[in-house]
Specification:
Strand content: 25-35%
Number of domains: 3
Structural class: alpha/beta
Shape: globular
CATH superfamily of the largest domain: HUPs
CATH topology of the largest domain: Rossmann fold
Distance between the termini: 51 Å
CATH class of the largest domain: Alpha Beta
Length: 392
């Protein structure tokens, strides 16, 4: 009987290294493929070259495991689909999540298609998540499940995957904890056993975001407006049956506050941000509670308890609503309770999802801090990620 062929995205880290080893142990024919996602000198990320180090580590691991190794250059697609998108979103005053996009657009699209050309039955990654299956009315549906390691669960980063993409995906380390993964790597003598986890952009390495953004989005001086915490603008229009009011971002106006300084460009800041403001002399720490890139304004509020930092709900346009489990999609007029998170590693919170013809309204049981347009909200039922969408 022919062995099933799996192409592993070997990143040069310990997680994908152990994933490749486990698949080989399970009897698959394993091919390692390293994604080269960056060598564009017109947008320099740093003087270091992390992808080169990672590529060398990936070669060493593949040799150690005795599996074929290839490199695939996806830098053109990565720039178009991820980097250009990021710049565009920041320019609009939104906060994109490149890791979610990288999985949707690169790993489980372009990379997956390249793997299929190599005759792969599946692609595998070193994500801490799991895949399940359920059958309904004779039809099979794939489930995206949280990883067993609660500290490392990465299902959120895969929240935009489709049924088709999931059908071809394997997550070999999803049942393991990080210490267990490192122990396996050590036991079989992998060079990556003690390697630190990568930080920063998917498959590129560590990025100092303001420096990165400044290469495309030029500094532009603008006013910083402080909004008082007891402002009446936060107290009006909050009736529980009015979804639009509950989920609206705060209506911030310059005339409601006082000018307290200047900044280098509203597109460099995100809601909830405290670091990088370089503003002192206030009784409480200052936080960004809103940005206006059209007029190049930043709105600030004093203190962790400033009402401008919190929202009861959010809205996702109909075109941006994505159901991993298509069979559970809400129709206009339907509501359902789910657990929701609006960023990676944030604890799940109870919320009511209501679908309308315009889009999806999410109203939380508890106030949410730092809800930023452009981020992804993902909703779960127990361990299963059901769907996601881009916050308006």
């Amino acid at each position: 009987m022919m062995k099933k062929r799996v192409v592993v995205g070997l990143s040069g880290g310990v997680d994908s290294s152990v994933a490749a080893h486990l698949l080989k142990e399970q009897g698959y024919e394993v091919i390692a493929l390293f994604m080269k996602n960056w060598h564009d000198d017109s947008v320099t990320i740093s003087n270091e070259c992390p992808w080169l180090d990672d590529s060398n580590d990936a070669v060493i691991v593949a040799q150690h495991l005795g599996i074929p190794f290839q490199t695939i250059d996806l830098s053109k697609e990565y720039k178009e689909r991820i980097v250009d998108y990021m710049f565009n979103e920041y320019q609009k005053g939104r906060t994109p999540n490149p890791d979610v996009l990288c999985n949707r657009e690169i790993k489980f699209d372009i990379f997956l298609k390249a793997a299929m050309k190599l005759g792969a039955d599946f692609v595998a990654t070193g994500h801490y998540c799991r895949k399940g299956e359920v059958e309904k009315d004779g039809e099979k549906f794939y489930q995206l499940l949280a990883g067993k390691d609660g500290n490392k669960d990465q299902s959120y980063f895969l929240c935009q995957l489709t049924q088709e993409q999931l059908s071809k995906a394997l997550f070999p380390i999803g049942e393991l904890t990080k210490p267990e993964v490192r122990a396996i790597a050590k036991k079989i003598g992998l060079a990556t056993a003690e390697k630190k986890d990568s930080q920063g952009l998917c498959f590129i390495g560590k990025v100092h975001l303001p420096d990165f953004l400044q290469q495309q989005l030029k500094p532009k001086k603008g006013k910083v407006i402080e909004i008082p915490g007891d402002s009446t603008i936060f107290k009006n229009g909050w009736s529980a049956d009015d979804l639009k009011n509950i989920t609206q971002p705060y209506d911030l106006k310059a005339e409601d506050g006082v000018e307290v300084g200047e900044h280098n460009g509203a597109h460099y800041y995100t809601i909830g941000q405290r670091k990088g403001l370089n503003m002192g002399g206030f009784p409480k720490p200052l936080f960004v509670i809103g940005t206006d890139t059209e007029n190049n304004l930043i709105y600030m509020g004093q203190g962790e308890d400033h009402p401008g930092l919190y929202r009861r709900g959010l809205f996702i346009q109909a075109s941006e609503v994505h159901w991993v489990r298509k069979d559970l999609a809400l129709e206009p007029g339907e509501s359902r309770n789910y657990q929701v998170r609006i960023r990676y590693r944030q604890p799940l919170d109870q919320a009511t999802l209501t679908m309308t013809s315009d889009g999806l309204y999410i109203v939380f049981e508890n106030l949410q801090r730092g809800v930023a347009p452009g981020q992804f909200a993902a909703w779960y039922e127990n361990e299963e990620l059901i769907g996601s969408g881009v916050i308006s």
